[in-house]
Specification:
The chain is an alpha/beta fold. The chain has helices spanning about 30-35, 45-50, 65-75, 80-90, 105-115, 160-170, 180-185, 190-200, 235-255, 275-285, 300-310, 330-340, 370-380, 395-400, 445-455, 480-490; strands at about 1-5, 15-20, 20-30, 55-60, 100, 120-125, 135-140, 145, 150-155, 205, 210-215, 265-270, 290, 320-325, 345, 350, 360-365, 390, 400, 415, 430, 435, 460-465, 490. Strands 6, 7, 8, 9, 12 and 13 form a 6-stranded mixed sheet that branches. A 6-stranded mixed sheet has the order 22-18-23-17-15-24, sandwiched between helices. The protein starts with a strand and ends with a strand.
Length: about 500
């Protein structure tokens, strides 16, 4: 039986089709409509999903009735979420298919645990807000995730909303640019007086894993004022907010580990699990840590199916989307890289998730001071933001202090041992968000490219960033790729 997981009427609509325990296909609506963070479906994504077969069951991410109630409580524009979803299904001829809801945070937790390969784990899901839950802790034992979390925090108490509110405070977009806010933190300082003020002004109680906010931060905190006697900048705001979130996560886990001793495995999900700096610190507290490459709401199209089936899915990696057929001309690509060019790769199945991992990537030589500036000009993004290296896994420890053996999905940061040699992939604190590529990966094309690059250049890594410019979705189809090539004068292979 084919089961369709769906998230829509949210900030990043997506679909995932599963047969048995196999994920046949998964995609993001924005990649087809070309509207960044598209919240609704479109005919093109539905048509591609249907090319893999019509589903016999639909599972929707979130309890739409409960979400409508919460939106009313939050004084947001009232609407009937249930009817909106029904109208979408009717529009695309799917209303006759039986459908179910699963809870927001259970979809996060199930999507993580049932793709992790673990038998036992502590499962954490933290985001801005689900229907009502904002933070949930789960137990998974003998291959089964508990039906309910053993600890939860509910709206309006939300660590995710706290971080998003301060993202907005410094002039970035809440629910979209938290990753930039995280990058800013490395440029700032944790000023004790400023951090203390944040804790006093925003938290009524902070006794991890429990906390209470003083204010509902759903609409931001532009009202907040910092006394003139505290000298600070936006980078310092980011550093202090990042420190508070990290402290909360670490203290919560250390508390919970006293009572949950069955496993040394951690599964971390929800939008907060995209914070790779915090992920790195959490990972040091466990033998094994797993974060699905798409841990936020858009990834819960898979999570919804996992929660419905309540059993493991066959996870072979995030290459689940649109397939661009054809062989990669590796020799020609290497020749262009050796000339110092930035090149694009658009081959194979698109990555399901926010990060390009070799199939929809911009690549260049990470050596040389000008590489970062060149890429920033193409991407039209802030100059302070770091880039990531894709490195042959067997060479990773030579160049980086790896937090774990392999980091295939760019979810953790590590210190570069030779920052002067590789300035393009180092942040201001000499950290790098490493993607390791091993010889058993399902992305054999990208592995072959890296191997040939190493053979020719003596360098086992390339700078790897997403094939798009700031504010646009990743390139999805070959037509998108050719359009990008023409607009930005970047050769796409």
């Amino acid at each position: 039986m084919k089961i369709l997981g769906i998230t829509t009427q949210n900030h990043d609509a997506s679909l995932a089709l599963v047969s048995g325990n196999r994920i046949l296909w998964a995609g993001h609506s924005e990649r087809y409509s070309r509207n960044k963070n598209d919240s609704i479906l479109n005919q093109d994504i539905v048509d591609e999903m249907l090319s893999y077969g019509k589903p016999q069951k639909i599972v929707f991410f979130e309890d739409v009735i409960e979400k409508s109630w919460r939106k009313w409580r939050a004084s947001e524009t009232p609407y009937n979420h249930h009817n909106l979803v029904k109208e979408e299904l009717r529009k695309y001829g799917l209303l006759d298919t039986g459908w179910n809801y699963v809870k927001h945070h259970r979809a996060h937790a199930a999507g993580g645990f049932y793709t992790s390969g673990f038998r036992n784990a502590l499962v954490i899901s933290i985001d801005a807000i689900g229907e009502r839950d904002t933070t949930t802790f789960w137990k998974a034992k003998d291959g089964v995730l508990d039906k309910k979390p053993f600890l939860r925090q509910s709206y309006p108490d939300s660590i995710g909303l706290f971080y998003s509110a301060l993202t907005d405070f410094v002039g970035l977009k809440a629910n979209e640019e938290e990753y930039i806010f995280m990058g800013m933190a490395a440029y700032g300082k944790v000023i004790p007086e400023l951090k203390k003020l944040m804790l006093q002004d925003f938290f009524k109680q902070l006794n991890p894993p429990y906390f209470k906010l003083r204010h509902n931060l759903h609409r931001g905190c532009r009202w907040w004022e910092v006394p003139k006697e505290i000298s600070y900048g936006h980078y310092d705001i980011a550093a202090c907010a990042q420190s508070i979130v990290e402290d909360y996560l670490i203290d919560s886990v250390n508390y919970l580990k006293k009572y949950w001793t069955v496993s040394s495995n951690l599964v971390f999900m929800g939008g907060v699990a995209l914070n790779c700096v915090a992920n790195t610190k959490l990972s040091k507290l466990f033998k094994n840590t797993y974060i699905m490459p798409n841990p936020g709401d858009s990834g819960s199209a898979i999570g919804a199916v996992a929660a419905y089936l309540d059993k493991p899915l066959s996870w072979k990696g995030p290459y689940l989307g649109t397939n661009i057929e054809g062989e990669l001309n590796i020799k020609k690509a290497i020749a262009s890289l050796m000339q110092g060019n930035v090149i694009g790769i658009a081959k194979g199945r698109a990555e399901f998730g926010p990060r390009a991992l070799g199939n929809r990537s911009l690549l260049c030589d990470p050596r040389g001071a000008n590489a970062k500036n060149k890429m920033n000009e193409i991407k039209k993004r802030q100059k302070f933001r770091p880039f990531a290296p894709a490195v042959l896994a067997e060479h990773a420890n030579t160049y980086f202090d790896m937090p774990m053996k392999e980091t295939p999905y760019m979810q953790y940061v590590t210190q570069c041992k030779q920052p002067n040699e590789f300035p393009a992939i180092c942040h201001v604190d000499n950290s790098s968000r490493v993607q390791t590529v091993n010889n058993t990966t399902d992305n054999k094309m990208f592995r072959a490219l890296l191997e040939e690059w190493y053979k020719v250049s003596g360098c086992p890594m390339l700078m790897n960033t997403s094939l798009n410019i700031k504010g646009e979705p990743l390139v999805n189809s070959w037509e998108d790729a050719k359009r990008f090539e023409e607009l930005h004068n970047i050769e796409i292979f």
